[in-house]
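FORM 7B: Structural annotation worksheet

SECTION A. Query
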Amino acid sequence: QVQLVESGGGLVQPGGSLRLSCATSGTIFGIVAMGWYHQAPGKQRELVATITSGGITNYADSVKGRFTISRDNAKNTVYLQMNSLEPEDTAVYYCNIGTRYGMTYWGKGTLVTVSS
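SECTION B. Predicted structure
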């Protein structure tokens, strides 16, 4: 059974940094892309960043220049380095994996709170 487990969330002051990790267990065939989404209270889940198996990255405009996504293909692990955090970044962050076979996997999320 495939599981995605996020870690690294927490409370941080504005301007601070956090590094999120998403570890996977189980066998996932044909991974095309891994990514991070976030969902703020009362809002829809939104894309934060994705990275393909070839290393091509894509970012939401709101995080460009502040967040960096990376992955370890051997471990099927994806990371999100978040710098210069803003209160607007407060949300639950979810890890996502998409495969060429149309399968999509989600983690349960990790809460990031940016507040002084």
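SECTION C. Observations
The radius of gyration is 14 Å. DSSP finds no helices and eleven strands in the chain.

SECTION D. Sign-off
Analyst initials: ____
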